[in-house]
Amino acid sequence: MADAEKKRKMAIRVVCYVLGMIVMAFGIAMSIRADIGVAPGGSIAVAVYMFVPLTVGQCSALFHAFCVIMQVIITRRPTIRHGLQLPFAYVFGLMLDFFYDRLDLPLHTIWHSIFFLVAGMVIFSLGIRTLVGANLVLAPPDGLARTVGNVFGWPMSKSKLAFDITATIIAAIITFVIGGNAFMVVGIGTLICAIFTGPLIGLYTKLFPFLDTDTK
Predict the structure, then answer these.
(1) pTM score of the predicted model
(2) What angle do CA 117, 125, 195 make, to 5 degrees?
(3) How far, rounded to the nearest angstrom, does the alpha carbon of residue 79 sit from its chain's CA centroid?
(4) 120-151 in b/e burial notation, b at 16+ Cβ within 10 A?
């Protein structure tokens, strides 16, 4: 009976994890389509996407794979969790492309863009919270942030902030060097996401404790 209960709880965690990934991909696709600056964590992938013959999902998957490689280099010890982040990168890239290709937002004014950016942020923050609650495999950028935090003895909040700032700067440099404009993917939307994503995830934690589907 105990084994059956554990299997049931694990199944719930897996289902919630997949749902969280889908919700996060949809929200991120919407925030990108809002076209006023992307969330810091996805800024490098979108910056590269603008200049290469790849889809936004493929660029995201490659960036996520790079984050996994950096984790292995830093820790000097590849683990199963590192390996499991690679399927996440691939599947998430497919989901991102699926939603990105199908979203056609009516961006007639800046207020429309802000509305869809905020809506996307509200949605992908819920997806992130669901993923975290399942406690299976971190998204590769978050895994890299945690690895860097472990090296320097930083809490996840500090290491994630450092990661987001670094990613935003790199994205701005990429678009400036190649496209001559540092604000092609970095904009007011980037600032909005940087300020409010963390508090939104905290709010979901308080409002929806059932999202913690870990068996522990």
Answers:
(1) 0.91
(2) 65
(3) 21
(4) bbbbbbbbbbbbbbbebbbbbbbbbbbbbbee
10 inside domain: yes
Q: For residue 162, give its domain range.
A: 2-101+128-208
**Cα–Cα distance, 19 to 15 (Å, whole number):** 6
Give the total number of structural domains in the chain: 1
- Give the number of other CB atoms < 10 A from CB of residue 177: 10
Q: Tell me, what DSSP letter sits at residue 180?
A: S
- Number of residues that make up the chain: 216
Rounded Cα distance, 196 and 207, in Å: 16
Nearest to 170 by CA among 32, 48, 29: 48
Nearest to 11 by CA among 161, 134, 180: 134
pLDDT tens for 50-103 read 999 999 999 999 999 999 999 999 998 888 889 999 999 999 999 999 999 999
Q: ∠ CA 121-126-129 to the nearest 5 degrees?
A: 125
